[in-house]
Protein backbone atom coordinates (compact mmCIF):
# COMPACT_ATOMS: atom_id res chain seq x y z
CA UNK A 1 0.00 0.00 0.00
CA UNK A 2 1.23 3.49 -0.87
CA UNK A 3 2.65 5.66 1.94
CA UNK A 4 2.54 9.44 2.15
CA UNK A 5 5.31 11.65 3.48
CA UNK A 6 4.76 14.93 5.31
CA UNK A 7 7.79 17.00 6.25
CA UNK A 8 7.32 19.52 9.07
CA UNK A 9 9.81 22.39 9.03
CA UNK A 10 9.99 25.15 11.62
CA UNK A 11 10.43 28.61 10.09
CA UNK A 12 13.76 30.44 10.30
CA UNK A 13 14.82 32.61 13.22
CA UNK A 14 13.37 36.03 14.02
CA UNK A 15 14.80 38.66 16.35
CA UNK A 16 11.87 38.52 18.77
CA UNK A 17 12.10 34.83 19.64
CA UNK A 18 15.87 35.05 20.04
CA UNK A 19 15.03 37.41 22.91
CA UNK A 20 12.62 34.86 24.38
CA UNK A 21 9.44 36.79 23.56
CA UNK A 22 6.09 35.16 22.89
CA UNK A 23 5.40 35.80 19.21
CA UNK A 24 2.23 34.30 17.82
CA UNK A 25 0.21 36.28 15.29
CA UNK A 26 2.69 39.19 15.22
CA UNK A 27 3.89 39.31 11.59
CA UNK A 28 7.63 39.44 12.23
CA UNK A 29 10.08 38.95 9.38
CA UNK A 30 13.04 36.59 9.38
CA UNK A 31 16.15 38.20 10.81
CA UNK A 32 19.24 38.57 8.63
CA UNK A 33 20.82 35.90 10.80
CA UNK A 34 17.79 33.66 10.31
CA UNK A 35 18.01 33.94 6.51
CA UNK A 36 21.76 33.27 6.59
CA UNK A 37 21.24 30.21 8.80
CA UNK A 38 18.65 28.74 6.43
CA UNK A 39 20.93 29.25 3.43
CA UNK A 40 23.80 27.63 5.32
CA UNK A 41 21.62 24.67 6.33
CA UNK A 42 20.55 24.25 2.71
CA UNK A 43 24.22 23.81 1.76
CA UNK A 44 25.37 21.62 4.65
CA UNK A 45 22.15 19.62 4.93
CA UNK A 46 19.58 18.16 2.56
CA UNK A 47 15.96 19.22 2.85
CA UNK A 48 13.43 16.63 1.68
CA UNK A 49 11.82 16.48 -1.72
CA UNK A 50 8.45 18.21 -1.54
CA UNK A 51 6.59 19.23 -4.71
CA UNK A 52 3.72 20.62 -2.60
CA UNK A 53 4.34 23.15 0.19
CA UNK A 54 1.77 24.25 2.76
CA UNK A 55 2.39 27.23 5.01
CA UNK A 56 0.70 29.85 7.13
CA UNK A 57 0.33 33.46 5.95
CA UNK A 58 2.87 35.13 8.25
CA UNK A 59 6.06 36.51 6.71
CA UNK A 60 8.48 34.32 8.66
CA UNK A 61 6.93 31.18 7.20
CA UNK A 62 6.48 32.48 3.66
CA UNK A 63 10.07 33.78 3.62
CA UNK A 64 11.34 30.40 4.80
CA UNK A 65 9.53 28.80 1.86
CA UNK A 66 11.21 31.26 -0.50
CA UNK A 67 14.67 30.39 0.83
CA UNK A 68 14.33 26.61 1.00
CA UNK A 69 11.95 25.93 -1.90
CA UNK A 70 12.38 28.96 -4.20
CA UNK A 71 10.86 27.30 -7.28
CA UNK A 72 7.62 26.23 -5.59
CA UNK A 73 4.70 28.54 -4.86
CA UNK A 74 3.36 27.56 -1.44
CA UNK A 75 -0.28 26.93 -0.65
CA UNK A 76 -1.05 29.46 2.10
CA UNK A 77 -3.53 28.32 4.75
CA UNK A 78 -4.61 30.81 7.40
CA UNK A 79 -5.33 28.05 9.93
CA UNK A 80 -1.60 27.19 10.09
CA UNK A 81 -0.94 30.46 11.94
CA UNK A 82 0.65 30.27 15.38
CA UNK A 83 -1.45 30.71 18.53
CA UNK A 84 -2.65 34.23 19.29
CA UNK A 85 -1.05 35.22 22.60
CA UNK A 86 -3.17 38.36 22.92
CA UNK A 87 -1.75 40.92 25.34
CA UNK A 88 1.21 38.61 26.00
CA UNK A 89 2.46 39.04 22.43
CA UNK A 90 5.99 40.40 22.40
CA UNK A 91 6.57 39.83 26.11
CA UNK A 92 8.99 37.40 27.72
CA UNK A 93 8.28 34.91 30.49
CA UNK A 94 10.40 37.09 32.76
CA UNK A 95 8.21 40.13 32.03
CA UNK A 96 5.08 38.07 32.72
CA UNK A 97 6.45 36.49 35.86
CA UNK A 98 4.12 37.07 38.81
CA UNK A 99 1.00 37.33 36.63
CA UNK A 100 -1.35 34.70 38.20
CA UNK A 101 -3.13 34.05 34.91
CA UNK A 102 0.15 33.53 33.09
CA UNK A 103 1.37 31.14 35.78
CA UNK A 104 -1.82 29.09 35.46
CA UNK A 105 -1.56 29.07 31.65
CA UNK A 106 2.11 28.06 31.79
CA UNK A 107 1.18 25.17 34.10
CA UNK A 108 -1.23 23.93 31.44
CA UNK A 109 -4.43 24.56 33.37
CA UNK A 110 -7.46 23.81 31.23
CA UNK A 111 -9.63 26.74 30.13
CA UNK A 112 -7.02 29.45 30.79
CA UNK A 113 -6.73 31.92 27.91
CA UNK A 114 -4.24 34.76 27.33
CA UNK A 115 -6.01 38.14 27.66
CA UNK A 116 -7.56 38.94 24.26
CA UNK A 117 -5.83 35.81 22.95
CA UNK A 118 -6.74 32.34 21.75
CA UNK A 119 -7.98 29.54 23.93
CA UNK A 120 -5.73 26.47 23.82
CA UNK A 121 -8.65 24.17 22.96
CA UNK A 122 -9.64 26.42 20.05
CA UNK A 123 -6.03 26.47 18.83
CA UNK A 124 -5.79 22.67 18.89
CA UNK A 125 -9.15 22.27 17.16
CA UNK A 126 -8.12 24.73 14.43
CA UNK A 127 -4.78 23.14 13.56
CA UNK A 128 -6.04 19.56 13.86
CA UNK A 129 -8.85 20.18 11.40
CA UNK A 130 -6.51 21.66 8.80
CA UNK A 131 -3.93 18.90 9.28
CA UNK A 132 -6.51 16.15 8.85
CA UNK A 133 -7.70 17.90 5.68
CA UNK A 134 -4.12 17.98 4.38
CA UNK A 135 -3.59 14.26 5.03
CA UNK A 136 -6.96 13.27 3.59
CA UNK A 137 -6.24 15.49 0.58
CA UNK A 138 -2.93 13.74 -0.09
CA UNK A 139 -4.58 10.33 0.04
CA UNK A 140 -7.43 11.46 -2.18
CA UNK A 141 -5.21 13.06 -4.84
CA UNK A 142 -2.39 10.53 -4.69
CA UNK A 143 0.30 13.16 -4.02
CA UNK A 144 2.86 11.31 -1.90
CA UNK A 145 5.09 14.13 -0.61
CA UNK A 146 4.53 17.55 0.90
CA UNK A 147 6.13 19.93 3.39
CA UNK A 148 4.42 22.02 6.03
CA UNK A 149 6.48 25.08 6.91
CA UNK A 150 5.03 26.41 10.10
CA UNK A 151 5.54 27.58 13.68
CA UNK A 152 6.93 25.60 16.60
CA UNK A 153 3.63 25.67 18.48
CA UNK A 154 1.72 24.32 15.49
CA UNK A 155 4.31 21.66 14.63
CA UNK A 156 4.96 20.44 18.17
CA UNK A 157 1.26 20.23 19.00
CA UNK A 158 0.39 18.27 15.85
CA UNK A 159 3.25 15.85 16.41
CA UNK A 160 2.17 15.29 20.02
CA UNK A 161 -1.35 14.42 18.85
CA UNK A 162 -0.72 12.41 15.69
CA UNK A 163 2.90 11.29 15.89
CA UNK A 164 4.33 7.89 16.77
CA UNK A 165 6.26 7.37 18.97
CA UNK A 166 4.02 9.28 21.36
CA UNK A 167 5.66 12.25 23.06
CA UNK A 168 4.56 15.46 24.73
CA UNK A 169 4.57 18.70 22.78
CA UNK A 170 7.73 20.11 24.36
CA UNK A 171 9.61 16.90 23.55
CA UNK A 172 9.24 17.65 19.83
CA UNK A 173 10.95 21.03 20.17
CA UNK A 174 13.72 21.73 17.65
CA UNK A 175 15.76 24.67 16.37
CA UNK A 176 14.63 27.07 13.65
CA UNK A 177 14.98 25.57 10.19
CA UNK A 178 14.68 22.00 11.49
CA UNK A 179 11.75 19.64 11.82
CA UNK A 180 10.54 16.08 11.35
CA UNK A 181 9.44 13.74 8.59
CA UNK A 182 6.25 11.74 9.06
CA UNK A 183 5.18 8.61 7.16
CA UNK A 184 1.42 8.22 6.77
CA UNK A 185 0.08 4.73 6.10
CA UNK A 186 -3.56 5.01 4.94
CA UNK A 187 -4.82 1.99 6.89
CA UNK A 188 -3.24 3.19 10.16
CA UNK A 189 -4.36 6.76 9.55
CA UNK A 190 -7.96 5.82 8.78
CA UNK A 191 -8.15 3.50 11.77
CA UNK A 192 -6.31 5.43 14.50
CA UNK A 193 -5.47 8.89 13.09
CA UNK A 194 -1.75 8.42 13.84
CA UNK A 195 1.42 8.27 11.74
CA UNK A 196 5.09 7.35 12.17
CA UNK A 197 7.61 10.14 12.77
CA UNK A 198 10.81 8.60 11.46
CA UNK A 199 13.44 11.28 10.96
CA UNK A 200 14.80 14.63 12.10
CA UNK A 201 15.29 16.97 9.14
CA UNK A 202 17.19 18.35 7.34
CA UNK A 203 19.65 15.48 7.05
CA UNK A 204 23.35 16.32 7.08
CA UNK A 205 24.92 15.84 3.65
CA UNK A 206 27.51 13.11 3.33
CA UNK A 207 30.97 14.05 2.11
CA UNK A 208 31.52 13.40 -1.57
Structural overview:
The chain is α/β, with parallel strands linked by helices. It is 38% helix and 18% strand. It is built from 8 helices and 9 strands. The chain has helices spanning 15-18, 32-44, 59-68, 93-96, 100-106, 120-141, 152-162, 186-192; strands spanning 4-10, 45-46, 53-55, 75-76, 145-150, 163-164, 179-184, 195-201, 203-204. The strands form 2 sheets. Strands 4-3-5-1-7-8-6 form a 7-stranded mixed β-sheet. A two-stranded antiparallel sheet has the order 2-9. Helix 3 links the parallel strand 3 and strand 4 (75-76). The termini are far apart. 35% of the residues are buried. The mean pLDDT is 95.
What's the total helix number? 8
- State the low-pLDDT regions, or none: none
State the helical fraction.
25-40%
Q: Helices and strands: which structural class?
A: alpha/beta
Reading the helices and strands in chain order gives EHHEEHEHHHEHEEHEE
Q: Report mean pLDDT, rounded to a whole number.
A: 95
Q: What is the approximate shape?
A: globular
What's the story with the biggest beta sheet? 7 strands, mixed
Rounded radius of gyration (Å): 17 Å
Tell me the span between the first and last alpha carbons: 34 Å
Number of strands: 9
Strand content: 15-25%
Give me the side-by-side strand order of the main sheet.
4-3-5-1-7-8-6
Amino acid sequence: MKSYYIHFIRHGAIEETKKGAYIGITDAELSEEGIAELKAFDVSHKYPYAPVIFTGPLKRCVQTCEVLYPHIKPIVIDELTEMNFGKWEGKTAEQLKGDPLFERWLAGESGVTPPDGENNDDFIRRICLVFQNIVDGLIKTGNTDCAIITHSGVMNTLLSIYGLPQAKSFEWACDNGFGYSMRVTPMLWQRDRVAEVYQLIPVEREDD
